[in-house]
Amino acid sequence: MNVVERSLFPRVEPGRIVSLILWPISIMMIFQRSVILGVNGHRTDDFTPVYNAALAFLNRMPVYNENYSTVDPHYLYPPSGTLLMAPLAVIDPQTSRWIFIGVSVAVLILCAYLLTRMFGFRYDSWVFPALLFFFFSTETVAHTLIFTNFNGFVLLGLLAFMMLMLGRHDLWAGVFIGLTLAVKPVLAPVLLLVLLNRQWKILITAVGIPVVLNALAWPISADPMDFIRRTVPYLGESRDYYNSSITGNALYFGIDSWLSWLLRIAFAAMAVFSLWFLYKYYRRTDELLWLATSTGILLCTTFLVGSLGQGYYSMLLFPLLMTVFLPGSTMRNWPAWLGVYGCMTFDVFASNKWEPFGRYLEYNKVPLGWSLLMIAVFCVLLFRYLDLRAVNKAAPTPPAHQSDPAATAA
Q1: Based on the number of CB atoms within 10 Å of its own CB, is 401 exposed (0-12), middle (13-18) or buried (19 or more)?
Q2: Nearest to residue 314, comparing CAs of 349, 345, 274?
Q3: Which parts of the chain span the membrane according to its record (predicted)?
Q4: Rounded to whole angstroms, how far apart are CA atoms 269 and 301?
Q5: pTM greater than 0.85 (yes/no)
Q6: Which long-range contacts (CB under 8 A, 24 or more apart) does 339-342 make?
Q7: What is the pLDDT of residues 343-360, one digit of tens each?
């Protein structure tokens, strides 16, 4: 190529082209989701109950005195979470909410960066803007900002925990997951992986931090025992609104309890097999793949079979989705990504023409998405298990004199 042709047709690397396309789109999506949709808010408001509880806590007034029979968002954090949320009420509610949205956006951008680095990509690669584009196109991130809740910080705690656990910085790994557990225990199932990997030191800070924060908050709370008497029983109940778990879905659509239990047992069994297979065959060969996939399976199973699973919890599955870049990933198939679409899409399926059908799709897209994702991951691992069995059966058994060196020597 001569000088004229190089001037007319400059060469640009494909990755650079992707970055040039995605950076401006991603930045505008971040602006729209936060400054426009986030500030606009929604009838579902997760921030106001937290702000009111923090204000009551600072003024030594009762916190756990809500009417749980209503469908309004309720304050459900333990006293340790109230202590951590207390600084929100130092300023007026509108300014506090706007600051919370801004910090949440910064946290989500940091999460995209950490995922990029954790899976071996540079910050200036096309993967970083692609992750930002994907993050802010999902329902889980959009509603986290619009409803203004704590989920972005939970994702940050999860990613920091995973990176520090892989780096064998055990006490610091426990600090980050412990801070999230002090506010909401959604990541508690992940501690099973700590036990399986025998990194016991993580438990010191992971369990110790919520215990210490609760010990500090308990004597200065006006009604800490009401959290035990009133809030904890409510947390154990399945509700029929804003609940995408199997039990919540069954209550809303009037499904018999036996079918609900059958589905819960089936998904729990799939999770047990998947975790066993990953532990046996992947933990020592690719620890990142093992940790990210096992974390996704544990959390997705919890969302499905637990008493409460809300759609915006799906952002905690981002590490599982990123394994698509790793050899051996369970995400390299189209049914898994159809499941991802179901549980993360910002599309609305409510239909004026086909109202019942549209309502069914809208209310079931998240549970169906989680279910399909779990089934796809399980089937991939099951087929690999069957392939291994077939290979082992087909392998010829060596004669006794070849398999026993001592006999051969004799």
Answers
A1: exposed
A2: 345
A3: 20-39, 98-115, 121-138, 145-165, 171-195, 202-220, 258-279, 288-306, 366-386
A4: 10
A5: yes
A6: 339/368, 339/369, 339/370, 339/371, 339/372, 339/373, 339/374, 339/375, 339/376, 340/369, 340/373, 341/369, 342/366, 342/368, 342/369, 342/370, 342/372, 342/373
A7: 999 999 989 999 989 989
